[in-house]
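P.,

For your records, the input lines for the assembly:
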Amino acid sequence: MPILQLREIVKHFGPTVALDGIDLDLHEGEVHALIGENGAGKSTLMNILHGAFRPDGGSMELGRMPYSPVDSLDARRCGISLIHQELMLAPHLSVAENILMGIENFRFGWFDKKALHKRARSVLENFDHPDIRPEATIGELSIAAQQVIEICRAVASNSRILLMDEPTSSLQRHDVERLFGLIRSLKADGASIIYISHFLEEIREIADNFTVLRDGKSVAQGKIGEVSDQFLVSHMVGRTVKNLFPKRTINEERETVLKVKDLSSPPALRSANLELRRGEILGIAGLMGSGRSDMVRAIFRLVDAASGTVTVRGNESQATCGTPASRISQGIGYLSEDRKREGLALSLSVADNITITRWSSCSRFGWLDLSKQRRRSEEMIAQVGIKAAGPAQPLKELSGGNQQKVAVARLIHQNAEVLLLDEPTRGIDIVSKAQVYEAIARCAAGGKAVLMISSYLPELFGMCDRLAVMSRGRLSRTRKISEWTPESVLQEAIGSN
Amino acid sequence: MDTHISTSAKTISGIMRTWITLLGPFLGLALVILAFSILTGSPEKYLSPFNIRVVLSQTVIVAVSAIGMTIIIISGGIDLSVGSTIALSSVVTALTVNAGFEPVVAVFAGIMAGAIVGLANGFVITGLRVVPFIATLGMLGVVRGVAKWLADQQPVNVSQTWINDLVVTFPNPPWLLLAPGVWIAIFLAVLMVVVLRNTIFGRRVFAIGSNEEAARACGIPTKRLRIWIYSLGGLFFGLSGVMQMSRLRQGDPTVAAGAELDIIAAVVIGGGSLSGGQGAILGTMIGAMIMAFLRNGCQQMGWPNYVQEIIIGAIIVAAVAVDQLRQRRT
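Structure tokens returned:
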């Protein structure tokens, strides 16, 4: 008998149908993977389960009783907690206050700080993270540590059912191991978990059963051990994705367009040297927080560098001067790892977001030619395969994968000679990934130089010609991709060679 | 490669979206006019050309400032010093006239006084990294003080010049129909609609308000742009000050205290979001008119001042609440 049973769940948003008949059974002690592209309805389903949305149709039963939470606190009281994909923490409050938010200790109406810290500490120790102090302020912690707090919060409320929406997207490998360890022990205690991830290998490692969602319907279910990746992917997309990575012809001995010498931006970045050639894709691997992002941000002048020179197409300049605007005029394009915070202006239209770095393509003396802007944007929408109602649609109405494609389209429209891409496919579905890869490969084939940071090794091995690894602020020597193995990359990254 | 331009979703053009956002304020205005037409019992009087002229020339000072405020609010900022700036500008204009300069010079000096305050705000906000709310709150006091100092703590009376005809109810020549100030406000509003929609500057204002970090990463010089925005806003506040002087026929350093609330309210009623990235000049103009028609209606009903204040306060909150509801639905 399943503890959670969903039948024919339907949810509309205005004219769009987000969920169109979802069936799902969750048993005690089961890890159930929810698989699907962005926009398939996974997050909507999670929101219904933890009380943020009301379903428009269908039935939910929790332990044979009808279940209809009025809000997420209600869901939490019923034993269902959500671990958000986006961090939902109060940055000014302490670790303990965040973990126990809503279920704080009170004594005669007064906040009992001691008991609060004690409870928080025991949760953190269970999660093998005694290094995080309950008194610390969330804002001081790294993103990975914040994710740990987010998970601890769900664990702390003694939930019987945990909903995990991409919990590993900002975790490092050893934190992923800890998370999986925790999931196994939760499972042994009889808790059930609905687990969303884009990483099939992760799902294979941790999940028992799966449900594939596509266009708001549950299209396939079963035991994860009995099906192939091919089976899962083809059900996710409704057709077969043959090659995730485009075929590329590699040209060597081409001119260097970007040369970085002795770049440093302490404390995160200590020393980076690299040369980027026309037509190549150079991969940068490394752990999160190793200084990878700081390197490209320093090149692009978003953070101040302490020393070093940057040579763009033969023009050498000190890394300590210049602005993002001057880098753009030198032909450098930058794609941020954080599209919500730094990458895109979500309340603006698709067209504005695409053309923002090169308004000169559709303007004269400061005046925009709006119909030209629309045409340019339409070309880009078609070229990168963006699913949007049109150039005037506000970006926030698009799915994550399509927003990321807009960010890529902006670089193509900018006609940048050097593309600095920081995690270009983070958190997007497999079809969008394939489209982004294709766009990147096309840029390289067209003679652009691409630098790509990624935490996802298959992507680096599938796309790059050469690779360097960042470890504790130092960039390794660049080598041909054939000279690297996933093992050697990891070894270099954790600095244990 | 196949294109994914979805045909299922209705394609809504940018212009349509603008009109939809204007629908709310517009209905509000219609409601206010309808209500007072009925309440006063004589719609022909409330909606007479005479009364409309009165209302419009009353609106114009708030409306001109609100144009500048809209731009500042779209960029994610706020300027609380607007009321003081109006007073300073009116004093400067009056003093310049009295010093024997041509009226044109006086008008220019008044407008520039506003721009200088805006420039100072811009520098404090970007250079000293003081949040706009605090920076302009401080400036509110400083500028009011400077205005009183310049005016020697009393109104500066001026001799009759053409400046005094800017916001009269009956323009001269009569074929103008509306006061010259009203025409100036209409012209500036239309101009800024076009500037915000069709220029790189305008799109940058939206971009910086929607996501400042993204704007910076896209090569927009965000600090310089902010200084420009506050200075431009100051120009509008300065012009309002000139009109204020024209209306009172004196430069009064204590005038327009609390005007910042009316001006910000006009922007917010018109669909501007205090978190930036959203706002419309036309909406703001309707917002300003809603308040002017309300005030006028209340006066005609003979209701005391406090009733107006309660109603206007309630309308501000209602307008934003309705906007929130609308956004949640979509």
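Two observations worth noting. The domain at 4-237 of chain A is CATH 3.40.50.300 (Rossmann fold). Chain A has two domains: 4-237, 256-494.

Regards
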